[in-house]
Amino acid sequence: MKNLILNVDGQRVTVWSQTLGDELWVHFSGKTFVHDMSQKNKRKSRSKMDGGDKNIVAPMPGKILAIKTNVGDSISKGDLVLVMEAMKMEYSLKATQDGVIKSIDCEVGDQVGVKQLLVEIEVSEASDA
Amino acid sequence: MSLSRIEKVGIANRGEVAVRIIRACKELGVTSVLLHSEADEQSVAYRQADEVVCIGGAPITNSYMNMQAVIDGALASGCDAIHPGFGFLSENAEFAQKCIDNRIIFIGPSPESIALFGDKISAKKLVETTECPVIPGYKGDDQSTERLLTEMKAIGFPVMVKVAGGGGGRGLKVAYSEDEAAAAIESAKREGINAFGSDKLFLEKYLNNAKHIEVQIFGDCTGKVFHLYERECSVQRRHQKVIEESLGQISASLREEIHKSAVSVAEKAKYLGAGTVEFLVQDGKHYFLEMNTRLQVEHPVSEMIMGVDLVKAQIMVAADNSVIWNQADMTPHGHAIECRIYAEDPYLGGVPSIGRLGFCHWPHGPGRRYEVGFDEGDTITTNYDSMIAKIIVHDETRARAIKKMQETLKETVIFGLKTNIPFLLKILEHEEFVTGQMTTQFLNKHFPGALEPTENNELETAILTAVSKQTVKSEEITDDMNPWFEV
Known about the structure:
The structure holds 2 protein chains of 2 kinds. In chain A, 11% of the residues lie in helices and 50% in strands. Chain A is mainly beta. Chain A is elongated and about 50 Å long. The relative contact order of chain A is 0.17. Chain B has 16 helices and 24 strands. In chain B, the strands form 6 sheets. Chain B has an 8-stranded antiparallel sheet, sandwiched between helices. The mean pLDDT of chain B is 93.
């Protein structure tokens, strides 16, 4: 593959990029970025977008070890939502936004698949602004 | 070069180490046979090996840890030797014996050596007969407070006071100075009686801020033991090493003592082949931790500064061909650093990122070395650990090697899966690492959680928009473009 040379705002940048399925991967200046193009249509309505990446989804297949919140709980960005085990290691899944737990879609002991929705979070208006 | 005793080597491993062994075999004129699981056909090793034999299903108990399956695969393909790599069956005395029983050369030490060092108690007993220091402690029957205090002073503070029957941190006290000693004994005894019905105490030196230093040793088939200087692996998480380097950041006098200790242990055990004696180093003193009776993941940093090939040396001594080294001539040159590249999400605290690798670019340059196990189109699965590759750099000084590693990591491109490269870059610029002060507490202390994602700056956003416009059909571009995620 060949890299692109771009001139952006007078700066010369060497860029690598590749489309993989719905994802566009880009690398420049020592950093890699990914852009999920399948999310685009869902994003047209802002109300739907709020839920988008704020929910807790399984980053990989594994087992739910503990659920640290209840439906209706207010949570802040960084709060521990649940603990799962994958490849013999424990991972803490944390809230990425302030909000309220809307639903819990898994139980302790469940085997879950990659990208499976585990906890739905309603993002508070303040943090969305 | 021909090795009369070894003509065909079975490789009982996978990933980047299998590739490393295949290349050593090729250079020695030996045929390589990859003994692989069903899950590993998409790998560099599978494509590079002279022959491949599938020994079983993806779960390690069906393949890489199944002794009979490995032996059967080796026998069926006519191997006269097996290289176990590291992990899996590499430190299994029973497996080494099984190889011998099947008239296959096990490329590694004797089953007796593996068993000796595999058992903590027998290893410590052996080490205590050498000049090599072990972590000082007291497990005697005299439990009087006076005796315990005397022993604590002899051990040197800080001292860990443990209840004999305790576990999981219960009944564990640390006395940082003589002033705290009596109180620690009293409280541990009290807790011991309440929780376990016994007030018998063990004392052990508390190493709360130690460096991990390990010496590469190598036993020749003539019985001579070489040391190839030391590596430092203090940057570790959950006992998993992340960045390794050689030489270690220790004083020249301590270095000499540690090498002597390591050689005395290996000589006492009549050790054959590559091995590593691990130490904890605190306050200028070193203490034996354990001996690994195999090749280490981080062996390339030693190879870079010593100018040797450890894997070829392993195969040669297994075939009774002596190495051509002379300890007096073995001097280290410059500094080498290794980073392990894992498919994982640093912004999620290192959750493995599984799936198929997209485009990968390993940018070559002077002093850069890549040990690549998986490349574009290969799949990282949940069956095994998620290491994609190792990147090793070598330069004249440590500061230059750090800079070279930073530039190499920045130029390296891996698409399709998230990697720990952003995390490695953060470590490499941390002051405690740069100054060489880091201990095994380094990651827990400075990087306890996931990396905080950073906002893309204006220039980055402009570049990303420009790339999207070239890649995505124009009608799909809207002002409400999705955010980009740095990975």
